[in-house]
Amino acid sequence: MKNRMSILSLFTMILALLSCSKSDDNITGTSSVTITVSTHDISFENTADTATVDVNVTNEWTIYTTEDWVKCSPSSSINTEETVTVTVEKNSGAASRTAMLVVKSATARDTINVTQNGDVSDDIDTPDGYSLVWHDEFDDALLSDGKAAMPGSDWTYEVASPGFVNNELQYYVSGITGTGDTLAYITDGTLKIKTAKINGNVYSIRMYGKQSTGWKYGYIEARLKLPSGLGTWPAFWMMPVNYTAWPDDGEMDIMEEVGYDPNVIHGSLHATNHYGSNPKSGTTTCSTSQTEFHKYAMEWTSSSISFLVDDEVYYTYNNPGTGTDDWPYDAPFYIILNMAWGGSWGGAQGVDESVLPTTYEIDYVRVFQKD
Q1: Which SUPFAM superfamilies does this UniProt record tie to the protein (predicted)?
Q2: For the segment 72-85, what is each residue's pLDDT rounded down to a tens digit?
Q3: Distance between CA atoms of 318 and 197, rounded to whole angstroms?
């Protein structure tokens, strides 16, 4: 009986100790985390810039943003006191934009609002009846380490192998090759798209402007200097945001030129009833397209599409009113800049690799819409 009582007493003591331990754990677990930030609102002009915010947290923490044009450094810390540098890219749109920074520690949160003004440049020539809604002047300064800047987050890249489209011969990369060669970079106020042969393969760039939103109608313009050489195929064109099938959803080629037929500029439209080698298309000659910058543009309305070089219209296609098989152009389209190597058109008369590396140069891209 005494043994049974001893065992019972010991069991009771163990339960009591476990109960105390659990109670202590609960007290520790409910201790609150305090987050304090030096400001809840940060404002920027439209240019690329930085600002700092002091963060005080009683626990390890992270900070993240809802938009990819904002970056935070450091993005996390075990320090209870830290100064975070907030960096914004330039805003190429005419409208202001906002983002939210969230400081997170355990279940605690605090937020910081970021506002950046739009670019309302008044030194840009604007077509009559239009207003500037977006542009990229590619005037970014060198980075702090002396390297060239790359296009901002308004641009995304295609990554693809040879034969991806049109039997082209190049690999498309996301700005930088696997060997560290930068093929899309900004120096001296222009974007350079470089096509190069590296370790036996040809690499180039195909990049998309505002791919997820695009624009419906407008005056779309770029100032370009084209590369030279047999096999080159530079382009400035647009594809539908809500793409499902080609050519049904349309394609608008504002500028194309091939190296075996230098200085002949093509503007073309593709749709179900006119595509491939039989588009609605016009051509013009620009004798210095490979040695000087020229303006290439498209004026796009619900009733017609016109192609221009240096403000002169050389081809217009009027909406026939017969439906989307002839006119699938009443939808948002986004901008594409690419430099193909070879392919069904660019390589129709062969390629000359001795011209590599070669560069397609873009001074600016601008989008205007009706007032």
Answers
A1: Concanavalin A-like lectins/glucanases
A2: 999 999 999 999 99
A3: 42
Q: How many helices and strands in the chain, by DSSP H and E?
A: 2, 26
Number of other residues whose CB lies within 10 A of the CB of residue 139: 15
State how far the Cα of 69 lies from the Cα of 46, in Å rounded to an integer: 12
Q: What's the CATH number for 130-370?
A: 2.60.120.200
Q: For position 145, what pLDDT does the model report?
A: 85
Fold of 35-116: Immunoglobulin-like (2.60.40)
**Max Cα-Cα span within the chain:** 113
**Could you tell me how far CA 36 lies from the centroid of its own chain?**
34
Chain centroid to CA 17: how far?
61
Give yes or no on whether 35-116 and 130-370 have one common fold: no
Query: Mean pLDDT across the stretch 252-269?
Result: 98
- Written as six digits, the tokens of 114 are 């970021």
Tokens of 88: 């914004």
For the chain, domain boundaries: 35-116, 130-370
For the chain, how big is the Rg over CA atoms in Å? Answer: 29
Q: Which residues are catalytic?
A: 251, 256
DSSP SS3 for 220:
strand
DSSP 92-143: -BSS-EEEEEEEEETTEEEEEEEEE-----SSS---TTEEEEEEE---PPPP
Close Cβ partners of 169 (under 8 Å, ≥ 6 residues apart): 162, 202, 231, 341, 342, 343, 347, 351
For residue range 44-60, list pLDDT tens digits in order: 998 889 999 999 999 99
